[in-house]
Amino acid sequence: MTLPMRVGFFTEVYRPIINGVVASVDNLAEGLRALGHEVHCFAPHIPGSDEDDGALRMPSLPLPISTPYRLTVPVVSRRNRRGIINHLDVVHAHSPFVTGWMSVRYARRLHVPLVYTYHTRLEEYAHYLPFDPKATRYAASTLTRSFANLADAVIVPTPAMRQRLAEIGVTAHIEVVPSGIDLEHFGSGKMRADLRRSLGAKSGERIVLFVGRLGREKNVELLLDALTLTRVPARLAIAGDGPEREALEAHARELGISDRVRFLGELERADLPDLYASADAFVFPSVSETQGLVLVEAMAAGTPVIAADADVVREVLAGEGRLVALSARSFAEAIDALPAEPPAHEIARSRAAAAAFGIDRQARRVAALYEALRAREVQAATP
Q: For residue range 189-242, what is the model confidence (pLDDT) as tens digits?
């Protein structure tokens, strides 16, 4: 058992933003605290954030594009620097941007291990910047490689991402540790007829569910196209928000399927288990993930998964769910093939596969990595 440690998380993205990175950061912090470790999260101030949520907020500025994300001003109060940062045993970066470079500075100054979790394939977001996409992707890969190689260890959630980092020249130690979810919470969902009715479903109709950020890289438009090709009566529920929402709503109108699509917006965490459990399938057309927490959430809820075939998705599903080509026709055919009720043994297998992604398991592995790095630091400092 490792001794209690004081850990500093540095993240560019945090509440009130809702996405997989924020969920991953919160889940790991929760898991480490449950093991007796002290975790302090340093994040930029974001308008609308709860100043009493425990995060240590830094000043921030708006970015020149329409986005809830902010430019962190790397200023930490003297009280937090002296009372917290100067006593950290491990510095853990969750971003290669401003907060990431702050973490490098503090780790070097304190002579403590620096760990970096690779949450985001930055090159897959090149379309958000008004520059040449090829140059932007190259710059993103260069930033990832340069920052990762400053860390004592890099955590990736899937073997495919370890291979990806090796391909772009990361030579730092890479540890595969899947990001965890609250298995009990997502496994507690109940199929609710009233919830299905609120989504517009009539008797005999299928409900397929997407949960996630509505960005171009998520390929949600493909699901709308698929809905026009299904032979069985089907409806699509979309939980989440993002820059593509208006375009997706307009596309649904153009296709004449607005009455079969519900845009639910961002939902509270407490509302998700019943939503998963009440859907006939969870549909996932994204191929830009490092893991995809929502895949695990659906599996924990026992919801059948239909997902675009990609290395990461294949590794997470571990033989469960149905992998299809990234096309509207393939998704439509998979929706048509859904049974009226998923067999009990498939639900049990799906939940068993999700058990590999528990928060406690992740936290123990990360804590063991911290301890190994600390021991190495001590050994290196011993004459």
A: 999 999 999 999 998 899 999 999 999 999 999 999 999 999 999 999 999 999
Give me the CATH number covering residue 146.
Answer: 3.40.50.2000
**Rounded (5°) CA angle 155-318-178:** 20
In a domain, 1, yes or no: no
- Please indicate, yes or no, whether residues 362 and 349 belong to a single structural domain of this protein: no
Please check whether residues 353 and 207 belong to one and the same domain.
yes
How confident is the prediction for the chain on average, in pLDDT? 95
My answer on whether 335 and 300 are in the same domain is: yes
